[in-house]
Design a protein that fits this description.
- By secondary structure, the chain is an alpha+beta fold.
- It is elongated, with a radius of gyration of 25 Å.
- Helices cover 61% and strands 10% of the residues.
- It has two domains: 20-213, Alpha-lytic protease prodomain-like (Up-down Bundle), CATH 1.20.1510; 218-306, Alpha-Beta Plaits (2-Layer Sandwich), CATH 3.30.70.
- Helix 2 (47-73) runs antiparallel to helix 5 (152-181).
- The protein has nine helices and four strands, in the order βαααααααββαβα.
- The longest helix has 30 residues, at 87-116.
- It has a four-stranded mixed β-sheet with strand order 1-4-3-2.
- Helix 8 (268-282) links the parallel strand 3 (252-260) and strand 4.
- It has helices at residues 20-44, 47-73, 87-116, 123-143, 152-181, 186-213, 223-231, 268-282, 294-303; strands at residues 5-8, 236-246, 252-260, 284-292.
- The two termini are 42 Å apart.
């Protein structure tokens, strides 16, 4: 008779830190700054200030999306959603990146038109308003600094705010150059530079979140190394049907079939060691292992992917 045992590692989510206050403060600060920046950009006819205000407005929407994704990830699983809503954080990160790319495309289009007929502006006002932006965006980025390494969704919020601080610095530099030279084209050119900087910084977030949406192996995890770790466990002679994916932006799941040399040996120690090593080496916290005696493993190999998947699937690491 086949003997199938599943081991589940239900460690706490790596992103257990509560960022609700950070999101609330960040959104409030940026709403106030957008209102000030848009007003002065309109008053002195500065495309650079209006562009930065538009970008900060999209970042407010991005912070709202990220907050919603973080809250969704904390909802408890139920009978109809057995993994809960953790994928909401991946969707929020993807929507965030897509929103930024679209906004920067619109900005570049407008700046290109403005280059054909540049208009005068007020350098000192640009410098003053953008200087306030540096302070606000830096303060907001610092609110998310401690979560940027463990959660792609939080990293997106951090990168947006850090990029905004750099963009505001660029606007200050543009205002200073305008005061020094008087060239009218500096304002739209600085807007184009802002757009390029943000697109470059956003592309990696877009690529990673899209990869995770399609159940790609998260970055930093080598599937072959995971396979070797499992194969090297005591009493394990084969590994197949190995799957690694992200449940959310801060939690990785794994399922695999392990063929046992001796199915009568104690299994608790094997499962505990597998879970501990996967957690320590790869930060994989949700582990499900099917332990198979040789006869059942042979059945899997014969039936192939119809029931059990390929004996050893070719798992490709993310680009």
């Amino acid at each position: 008779m086949s003997s199938v045992t599943a081991g589940h590692g239900h460690a706490h989510d790596g992103a257990s830190v509560d960022f609700n206050a950070a999101f609330g403060i960040g959104i409030a600060l940026n709403i106030a700054f957008v209102a000030v920046e848009a007003f002065y950009g309109w008053k002195i006819n500065s495309l650079a200030l209006l562009a930065d205000a538009g970008h900060n407005l999209s970042d407010i929407a991005g912070l709202v999306l990220a907050w919603g994704g973080a809250l969704a990830g904390k909802l408890r699983p139920d009978a109809r959603h057995t993994y809960g809503w953790k994928r909401g954080s991946i969707m929020a990160a993807f929507a965030n990146a897509l929103l930024l790319l679209v906004a920067m495309g619109s900005l570049a289009w407008e700046a290109a038109h403005r280059l054909q007929s540049p208009e005068a502006t007020e350098g000192w006002t640009i410098i003053a308003v953008a200087g306030v932006g540096i302070v606000i965006n830096t303060a907001t980025a610092l609110l998310f600094m401690r979560g940027r390494k463990s959660d792609l969704n939080i990293r997106g919020a951090f990168l947006h705010m850090a990029a905004d601080a750099l963009v505001s610095l660029g606007v200050v530099i543009g205002g200073a150059l305008y005061l020094w030279s008087g060239y009218l084209w500096i304002d739209p050119v600085m807007s184009l530079v802002i757009a390029v900087v943000i697109v470059v910084g956003t592309w990696n977030l877009f690529r990673q979140s899209l990869h995770l949406l399609f159940d790609g192996v998260p970055e930093g995890i080598d599937p072959e190394a995971v396979h070797s770790l499992l194969l090297g466990l005591p009493n394990v002679s084969g590994v197949h049907d190995l799957h690694i994916w992200a449940m959310g932006t801060s939690q990785v799941a794994l399922t695999a079939h392990l063929e046992l040399i001796d199915p009568t040996a104690a299994m608790a120690a094997l499962l505990g060691r597998a879970e501990d090593e996967l957690h320590a080496r790869f930060e994989i916290r949700h582990v499900t292992l099917q332990l198979e005696p040789p006869a059942y493993a042979q059945r899997c190999r014969l039936l192939g992917e119809v029931i059990c998947g390929q004996p050893r699937p070719q798992i490709m690491a993310p680009p």
